[in-house]
Automatic annotation (TrEMBL):
PANTHER family for the chain: GNAT FAMILY, PUTATIVE (AFU_ORTHOLOGUE AFUA_3G00765)-RELATED-RELATED, N-ACETYLTRANSFERASE DOMAIN-CONTAINING PROTEIN
Source superkingdom: Eukaryota
InterPro entries noted in UniProt: Acyl_CoA_acyltransferase, GNAT_dom, N-acetyltransferase
Organism: Rhypophila decipiens
Residue stretches in coiled coil: none
Name this polypeptide is given: GNAT domain-containing protein
N-acetyltransferase domain mapped to chain residues: 13-176
Amino acid sequence: MASPTWCIESPRLTISHLLPESDAHCDFMVSLYNTPEFIASIGGSPTDITTREAARKHLAGRVRETHDRFGHGIYLVSLKAGQGETRENENPLERAIPIGIVSLVRGTDPDPEKSYPVPDLGFAMLTEHMRKGYTKEACQRILRYADEELGLQQVLGLHNPDNEASYAVFKSLGFKDQGLRVLKVFGGVVGQVWTMADVDGDKLSVYGLPDEVASLGAES
């Protein structure tokens, strides 16, 4: 079960578990999942996370199941209290402000037979907190956690080929551009693929990805 006090920190941020019992977390997810940028990142169709209770069900269901099954999943990214405002012995989460999410997931289905053998890195920020370096900072911290605590030697980057912002983030993180590939776990759509660890593009089948580069319009 997710710990309400677990967190890892970067200079400006905390990364912690999303808690379905927290009304604040549920309300935040409604706000995030209904921003124009988030909707565009998932293909343009609105989500069904439009109420507090819908968000609570999502966090208690798929989000928690993914963590329980794989040991990692979607995490809350929060902005720390201002410099000089942290009180002695204070939990850094107490006054942190939720601004986004970062994730290590293996597909949309918790069934390992329908997921990738290694996670892909995902991220989303509220509109007003974009273009401030928070996404890169959160990604760098969760990748360090993945390496040092989870023992993950490979992490993928998967996104819509038209998503220039995601492309820029993965490039800035030093991921290797593997071009376009058919993503069977996501319904056979063509997506932009990155790998954290260097690997030849014709040897991606070990990660459940086709060795052949695809072209737009090649969805299966």
